[in-house]
Amino acid sequence: MTVPAELSRLADIRALVREVAIEGGAPPVCLDDLVQAVDEAATNIVVHGYGYQGGPIDVDARVEDERVVIELRDRAPTFDPTEVPEPDLSIPPLQRRPGGMGLHLIRLATDSMTYRPRAGGGNILTLTRSLDPRPKEER
Amino acid sequence: MALQTTVDHVEARVPVTVVGLNGELDASTYEHLIEDVRGLYAGGTRKLVLDLSGLTYMASSGLIALHSIVQVMHGEEPPDIEGGWSAFHALGNAVESGGQEDVLLAGEQPGVTRVLQRTGLDQLFSSYPDRASAIAAA
After folding, report:
1. Among B71, B64, B136, B75, which Cα is nearest to B106's?
2. Phi and psi, residue B96, nearest 5°
3. DSSP classification of residue B79
4. Domains defined along chain B, listed by start
5. What ipTM is given for this predicted complex?
6. Which CATH number characterizes residue A94's domain?
């Protein structure tokens, strides 16, 4: 699926991933994790990647080997989100910079997040999450 | 599904405003929610219950909304959000972590609870199983 990088289209991306995950037998926590991960990643593309200027986002989701694989491709300036450090959660919430939680949530919601630059310019982010019914913290 | 909100004013031990959130709170909707609460505060609301029982998804931008709502309810103006998330900076410490009782949460679904816990924002809120118990505690 290719959607324009607009905040109003995030719901469509979540719906696609939800549909694929349900068909693949994803249990509730797994489903929540996948929706969160793809939404945060797509939001980052809209907001930071394209800087609200728009552009295409290609989204593929499939189930293979007992896991859901999501691939997001864009034509935004090259940026590797796997290089971003974890936020300092020891800082009290109201004194913390409230942005920057998206990548933290992606890391907790997925089993892997891998990045590679896209040929011809842009980024490819691949997220995987096993069909395990438990959240990552309990595995 | 877009976010829909309902607003109810309840006379409890103190006047309580209950904002019910239905649908998904994401980057396309969180600013509207902050605006709604800013309007309520301007109209005199000083005790707020957020009924999250109909909220099926909360993005990290929803956390920004909750964070900003607490500030609004303390009479602080959150940073300008028109410029996007980069406009946010370290915020004042008028409210100590875990100490605020002006904004209460009610009825959140497990996925929303997980997001709050995973980011530590659960420390900021007292949370009740449903709207009635949150109002009773307000």
Report:
1. B136
2. -75, 150
3. P
4. 4-137 (3.30.750.24)
5. 0.91
6. 3.30.565.10
What was the pLDDT predicted at B120?
86
Number of domains chain A contains = 1
The CA distance from A99 to A6, in Å, is 19
Length of chain A measured in residues: 139
A96 Cα to chain B: minimum distance (Å): 5
Sign of the dihedral defined by the CA atoms of residues A129, A132, A134, A137, in that order? negative
- Residue B86 has what pLDDT? 39
- The per-residue b/e assignment along B23-42, b for 16 or more CB within 10 angstroms, e otherwise, is bbbbbbbbbebbebbbebbe
Query: Cβ–Cβ of A98/B24 closer than 8 Å?
Result: no
Q: Which residues of A touch B (CB under 8 A)?
A: 7-8, 10-11, 14, 28-29, 32, 35-36, 39-40, 43, 46-47, 52, 89, 92-102, 104-105, 108, 135, 137
Structure tokens at B87: 């406009």
Entry pTM: 0.91
Report the pLDDT value the prediction gives residue A88, as an integer from 0 to 100: 76
Torsion of CA B64, B66, B71, B75, to 10 degrees: 130
Q: What is the pLDDT of residues B24-68, one digit of tens each?
A: 999 999 999 999 999 999 999 999 999 999 999 999 999 999 989
